[in-house]
Specification:
The protein has one helix and 22 strands. With 287 residues, it is mainly β. The strands form six sheets. A four-stranded antiparallel beta sheet has the order 1-2-3-4, with no helix packed on it. Strands 5-6-7-8 form a four-stranded antiparallel beta sheet, with no helix packed on it. It starts with 18 loop residues before the first strand and ends in a 6-residue tail after the last strand. This is WD40 repeat-like protein.
Length: 287
């Protein structure tokens, strides 16, 4: 049953105001929504009204994520930046940009905060997954290997890996332990350095030693959404091929495929409490 409808009466009634991203706060009291009008609205669900509006992005907001303690929220936008906002004093905390010398400035499609709150990862239209230090706002790693835009990123529950999904029809698992082991504050933000140890198929990793250790192959079209189960056992993905794939997170082997949506599966998440999977699709259905 429908429990609540949140409407901003002050928003412009002219044209469609698509809401591209939604995210609950960890305590379930707030819902963050990112829309085409470049604003992030934080809704108090019990009071059914807006608590805070974060403004500053120059283009629409594609992705939102709360830190586990609920203090910070990170947003990714078509304006080529990710931003960290502070829920405690309702301020802009950091602007995260791609500042490598040879970087192609490109829209940010997907953001996530690591479980310990130290890192922000973002997928981008330029095929790169970038990682920033939350404390300093410094770029600490660029993960290169996808052959088309990255549309979805997710940290593993232990914080040691990132799963990314791309328009190249694959998912990749990136081992980011090398940057966790080093003092992030001591890492200079720098441009691409060719790593020796280029992986099979000409795969590279990151300049600071992070590597792509697994490829998930099986989707027949763009991978648009990825999630990792809370026990770290499963990776799930949704695709333009209309299917949902379940993968073994340790081996990258596909275990099963769910079909039924009549259009692209553009959003996917696993319940923290149990064995429930939710999907959203271009066929106007959530399942």
């Amino acid at each position: 049953m429908k429990t609540c409808v949140l409407v901003d009466e002050s928003a412009s009634k002219i044209g469609d105001l698509y809401i591209r991203s939604v995210c609950f706060s960890p305590d379930g009291k707030f819902l963050a929504t990112g829309a085409e009008d470049k604003q992030i609205r934080i809704w108090d669900i019990a009071k059914k009204r807006i608590r805070t509006v974060f403004e500053g992005h120059q283009q629409e907001i594609y992705s939102l994520d709360f830190s586990r303690d609920g203090r910070l929220i990170v947003s990714g936008s078509g304006d080529k930046t990710a931003r960290i906002w502070d829920m405690t004093d309702s301020s802009l905390n950091k602007i995260l940009t791609a500042n490598e010398p040879d970087a192609v400035q490109a829209g940010v499609t997907s953001v996530c905060i690591s479980p310990d709150g130290r890192l922000v990862a973002a997928g981008s239209l330029d095929t790169v997954v970038r990682i920033w230090d939350v404390q300093t706002g410094q770029l600490v790693e660029c993960l290169k290997g996808h052959r088309d835009s990255v549309y979805s990123v997710a940290f593993t529950p232990d914080g040691e890996g990132i799963v990314s999904g791309s328009l190249d029809k694959t998912l990749k698992y990136w081992d980011v332990r090398p940057i966790l082991r080093r003092d992030l504050a001591a890492l200079p933000a720098q441009g691409a350095v060719e790593k020796n140890g280029v992986k099979e198929g000409g795969e590279k990793g990151g300049e600071k030693g992070s590597q792509c250790t697994m490829n998930f192959n099986g989707h027949k079209d763009y991978v648009l959404s990825v999630a990792v189960s809370h026990d770290g056992q499963w990776v799930v993905s949704g695709s333009k091929d209309r299917s949902v794939h379940f993968w073994d997170a340790k081996t990258a082997q596909m275990q099963c495929m769910l079909q039924g949506h009549k259009n692209s599966v553009i959003s996917i998440d696993l319940s923290p409490a149990g064995s429930i999977l939710a999907t959203g699709s271009g066929d106007w259905q959530a399942r």
